[in-house]
Structure formats: C-alpha cells, structure tokens
Write a structure and sequence with these properties.
Oligomer: single chain
Transmembrane segments: 26-46, 53-73, 79-101
Pfam families: COX4_pro
Keywords: Cell membrane, Membrane, Transmembrane, Transmembrane helix
Helix content: 55-70%
Shape: elongated
Subcellular location: Cell membrane
Structural class: mainly alpha
GO cellular component, one term: plasma membrane
Length: 121
C-alpha cells in the first residue's frame, strides 16, 4: 500500500501531490491558445462589419478565457459548480462588453458631429 506523506507549506496548502493535469494537456491547451491568437490576428484582415467583427473577437476571447480557466486554473479537476459559475460569469461579461461596445458604436456619429458654437449677436 502506497504511503501518502502530507507536506503542508507555510500558507497551509497541501503540496504533497503532483500537478493534477498531464503535460500533454497543458501543451495542447497552450497550442490551442496560440492557434486562437493566430485566428484573432487573421480575422482582423477581413471586414465583416462592425457588429460581426465585434462578435467574432468576443467569441474567440470567450473561448480563450474558458480554456485558461478550465486547464490552467484547474477548474477541470475542481468541483463542477465552480466551473459552471466561472463559465457563466465569463459569458455574461462577454455579452455585457459586446452590448456596451455596440451601443457606443450606435452613438458614435452623434459624438463625432461638430458642436454648434453660439455666435455673438
């Protein structure tokens, strides 16, 4: 029977176990993030319209943030409710930023108009 020796660090965390994810998954995640970065840069050369460009960029950012949280922040091996909460939070932040940017774009023409300067009588 294997003996499990507990090593508690100065902060009270158990440091006796190895990294919970194999290096192959870590490298695959890293290469997926690099691929998505290349896709992000490549998409900027095409003009799909302001709204479509924004949705594509925010969609890629959401996928990248989910990959980082799922693998590098160890949500994959954590309690499932934590993953659901974080993914839902990322989704709502993505939607909020997307709608805020679309709203800003809708009023940009009003903001760019020259102001009317009153003239002296």
């Amino acid at each position: 029977m294997a003996h499990h020796e507990t090593k508690i660090d100065d902060y009270g965390y158990d440091q006796s176990y190895n990294h919970p994810l194999p290096y192959s998954e870590m490298f695959l995640t890293f290469f997926a993030l690099m691929f998505l970065t290349i896709i992000t840069v490549g998409v900027t050369t095409y003009d799909f319209g302001y709204t479509a460009n924004l949705l594509v960029a925010m969609g890629i950012a959401f996928v990248k943030a989910t990959l980082v949280a799922w693998y590098f922040m160890h949500l994959k091996v954590d309690a499932p409710v934590n993953g659901v909460i974080l993914i839902a939070s990322l989704l709502f932040v993505t939607l909020f930023i997307s709608f805020a940017l679309m709203d800003t774009n809708a009023y940009q023409s009003v903001l760019d108009r020259p102001s009317i300067v009153p003239t002296a009588p």
